Amino acid sequence: MESLLATRGDSAVVVEPPLSQASGYIVVVLVGFIIAFVMVFVTKLLKRTVGEDNEKTEMFMTANRSVTTGLTASAVVSSWLWSTAMLGSTLVGYVNGVSGPFWFAAGCSPMIVFFAVLGISCKRKIPEAHTLLEIIRIRYGKSAHIVYMALCLINNLIAVANMILGASAVITAMTGMHIIAATFLLPVGVAMYTFVGGIKATFLTDYFHTFTIMIILCFFSIKAFTIPEVGSMSNLFELVKAAGERYPVAGNEQGSYLTMTSKGGILFGILHICANFGLVIMDTSFFQKSFSASPSAVVPGYVIGGIAYFAIPWFIGTLASSVVLGLEDNPIFPTFPRRMSSTEVSNGLVLPYFAMTVAGKGGAVGILIITFMAVTSTLSAQIIAVSSIISFDIYRTYLKPNAADKDIIRWCHYGVVFFALFASGFSTMLHYVGIDLGWTLYMLGVLTCPGIFPTTFSILWRRQSKAAAIISPLLGMATGIAVWLGSAYALYGAVTIATTGMTLPCVYGTVASAFSPLPYSLIITLFMPENFDWADFRNEKLAFEVDHNAIGTADAKKTEAILEAELSETDLHSQPHLKRWGRIAFMWAIATFLGHWVLWPLPMYASKYIFNAGFYTAWLVVGVIWLWITLLVVGFYPIIDGRVEIMEVWRAVRAGKAKSKSKPSAESVDSSGTSSIVVSEETQQPMGNGEDKPKP
Question: Which regions span the lipid bilayer (predicted)?
Answer without folding.
Answer: 22-42, 63-82, 102-120, 146-171, 177-196, 208-227, 266-287, 299-327, 364-390, 411-433, 439-461, 473-495, 507-528, 584-602, 614-637
